[in-house]
């Protein structure tokens, strides 16, 4: 049993080994510490064993409730991508957003091919911005979770891109709302779209700062992204006051609320690390908080698309004619 655990905690790279996050080279039955991990024979880094949390390097230690089944350092991009098809703590994170990304690629292609001639270029661009932001967010997230075990430098770079994708998706999701709420009113439409772009740029700037990505700042990240999302309530209130609550009903405000619930629930699950905090070591591969957060983000984005599509259909089918 002791020997079996010892084997699990080792990463075998042909004649090389990574133990406790440090590269160790085996040579003539002697272990020699190799501090420069680039010295590993990268072509052999496809055979590896999952590690326990305690044996991860500091920069890969994110969630202490996931006790085992972590990928070790795999300094080979091809091996990182092959790990998509293996079972470990990132498998669910990768597939939830990879499938979500492919769903939005399919929806965008269908939308583009089947959009009728009377749809204006502006309408198409608004939806295209939404699709592009969703695809970018889910795609960058998939990439981050795939290659985050490569090295500390790659981890930091792709984590920034992951957060950048979230900020872009928030911007891309808010623009269709404002565009269709103020479909015939140019000034509020431009004011609110400008507000979203300016605020979004500030959030992007913040997400790229070194402190923002640190493992123990997940509450800050949730607060920054939630605050950005909540600014949609300003144009929503304006719209409700000037057009009446009944308009909100026609614009499927129920779906808007459902989307908000899914995103907020996702943020709560992400920050509180439920359920694994109640079942340490039991959710290492499936159903841990980050995976559920990913799932809720995809469901929130699909709900948002349906709502935006219904609003657009309502406008474009002539139920709301602009006087000018
Ligand atoms: Zn993620």
TrEMBL record:
GO molecular function, one term: metal ion binding
UniProt KW keywords: Membrane, Metal-binding, Transmembrane, Transmembrane helix, Zinc
InterPro entries linked to this entry: AdipoR/HlyIII-related
Location(s), subcellular: Membrane
Mode of membrane association: Multi-pass membrane protein
Residues noted as binding Zn(2+) in the record, renumbered to the chain: 145, 290, 294
Listed transmembrane segments: 94-113, 125-144, 164-183, 190-208, 220-241, 253-272, 292-312
Any one GO BP annotation for this protein: adiponectin-activated signaling pathway
Keyword Kinase set for record: no
Highest taxon listed in the record's lineage: Eukaryota
Claim: Membrane is one of the keywords in the record: yes
GO annotation, cellular component aspect: plasma membrane
Family affiliation: Belongs to the ADIPOR family.
Protein name stated in the entry: Uncharacterized protein
